[in-house]
Amino acid sequence: MADAPKSFFLTPEIHAYVLEHGTPLDDVQRALIDETARLGGISLMQVAPEQGAFMTLLTRLVGARRAIEVGTFTGYSALAIARGLPDDGYLLCCDVSQEWTAVARSHWERAGVAHKIELRLAPALDTLRALPAQEAFDLAFIDADKRSYAQYYEELLTRLRPNGVILVDNTLWMGTVVDPSVTDDDTEAIRAFNDRVAADDRVDCVMLAVSDGLTLLRKRA
Question: Which of 76, 129, 146, 153 shows the smallest number of beta carbons within 10 Å?
């Protein structure tokens, strides 16, 4: 993952240059990338290193203290967010896989951020809907099943403070969002989600050409 670009529009050479000119990966990050790679093709679900660095930086910039993510996989995105939180910060991770999140837990411990993270293994919509319907979170990240993106977004927006931020992964979907010949359910769901948030007057919205597309949303006050 660190060597091959997840951004479909970057050459390996440009991707290497991007990584070389950002905060260097540490031993924990490299170990997590390597262990995830051993899972095979499914490792593509791990966020790219440059995206992780961006997420840590953004978490610090917005002064987030309470964060939530939907879709944890092997924990790289959670590691990135947790490192951006203060020592008494809190990150709620929603996932359904005991196997994949076991990898995450071990690396969170090694990185010294496990005390900031609560992992709930259950369908994410169940977890979100069980939370109080109050503006309790500063930052949210969505990176799970694409057909539920719109539902995750609505549940999270309700629970996000004004000026809070939602990050949404895979919104370029390897470029297929602009290919009319691609009509599978996931691609159509991403297109519908992108159209929805771009027209939503509750948020400011920008789609960034980071990794496989990263949409940044600010809840208007």
Answer: 129
Answer for the pair 170, 159: CB distance below 8 angstroms, yes or no: no
Report the distance separating Cα 87 and Cα 65, nearest Å: 9
- For 125-175, what is each residue's pLDDT tens digit? 999 999 999 999 999 999 999 999 999 999 999 999 999 999 999 999 999
Look at residues 150, 87, 132 and name the one whose alpha carbon lies nearest to residue 114: 87
**pTM > 0.85: yes or no:** yes
Per the DSSP assignment, residues forming a β-bridge with 167 are: 141, 216
CB 46 within 8 Å of CB 73: yes
What Cα–Cα distance (Å) separates residue 204 from each residue in 47, 48, 114, 143, 165?
Answer: 23, 24, 32, 19, 10
**How is residue 157 written in tokens?**
């927006």
